[in-house]
Amino acid sequence: MKKMITMAAILAVTPLAWAADDALYTDFKAMMDASFRTKGIVDKYRMYQLDFQKACSQDKDPSAKVMQAIEAEQLKTIRYPADGQYFGDWKQGEKIATSGKGLTWKDKTPHNNGGGCYNCHQMSHHEIAYGTIGTSLLEYGKQRGNSEEVVKYTWGKIYNAKAFNACSRMPRNGDAEILTEQQMKHVMAYLFDPNSPVNKK
Amino acid sequence: MRNRTAQFVMAAGMIALNVTTWSPSALADAATDEIAKYREMLADGNPSELVAAQGEELWKVKRGPKKATLEQCDLGLGPGVIKGASAQLPRYFKDTGRVQDLETRLMTCVETLQGIDTKELNKTKWGTGEMEKMEALVAYIVTESKGHKINVDMRPAQMKKMYELGKMAFFYRGGAMDFSCATCHGQPDKRIRLQDLPDLREHKGAAAGWGSWPAYRVSNGQFWTMQHRLNDCYRQQRFPEPIYGSDVTIALSVYLAANGNGGPVLTPGLKR
Question: Fewest C-beta in 10 Å: which of A84, A124, B26, B266?
Answer without folding.
Answer: A84
